[in-house]
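Re-run requested by the PI after the first attempt was lost when the workstation crashed. Everything re-entered from the original request form. Ligand of interest: 1,3-dihydroxyacetonephosphate.
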Amino acid sequence: MGPQHYVIGNWKMNGLVAGACALARAVLAGAPGCATQLALCPPATSLGAVAAVLGRGPVMLGGQDCHPKATGAHTGDVSAEMLADVGCGLVVVGHSERRTNHGERDDLVRAKAEAAHRAGLVAVICVGETLAEREAGRTREILATQLRGSVPAGATATRTIIAYEPVWAIGTGKVATPAQAAEAHGWIRSELDGMTGAGGAFSILYGGSVKPENATDLFALPGVDGALVGGASLDATQFLGIAAAAPRRRA
Ligand code: 13P
């Protein structure tokens, strides 16, 4: 029995309500055949409608971001409590697009992960190096710094998932080689082990141009417990194709 296996779709800023519901319906229809835990993270505007489609079925609902505070004067933000209220079971925090486009640093990402835990959500904490950092031989150091800064003290594997998303592989069609992915996942697990004493229990997902064509090879790697999928999650056939590559659920 190892970590839970997940395939999570991050729809990013794509889709209107009708399309989101149709996509969620198609994924839900294919879910019973899947050996992995599926989750969908629509844009905030579609969360309520997609929650109604997913109901109490096997596909989890997730947010793409949350504010550290539960309530208050934070125009445009959504709290973890609000996500839980609408039916979310998880929330992605620290995605590289948030880190880059909104200047989010590790301490803010940690506060968001703490907010997720406070609200009873699983926090999917994203880490990953840029191409320049990789080429400078700094990947391990960057991952360690992000993990130490972003993962809350006392985080447990039941409430925390790590997503390794090399920034240079996101939306580029470039995928980490099996050796690169396995090495990075090993580094992350050993860092988590140092931090929590239970690194082996954490689900560590790979993200970055995951497609049905490369999912089997990625999922076969030691230490890869699923995928955080961007572009391919916008197509139910592709998303379910990735899910079909998952080994049997290991919960
Ligand atoms: P792509 O699958 O489009 O490369 O996006 C990955 C990602 O950022 C998932 O969060």
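Saved to the shared folder this time. The CA atoms of residues 178 and 218 lie 7 Å apart.
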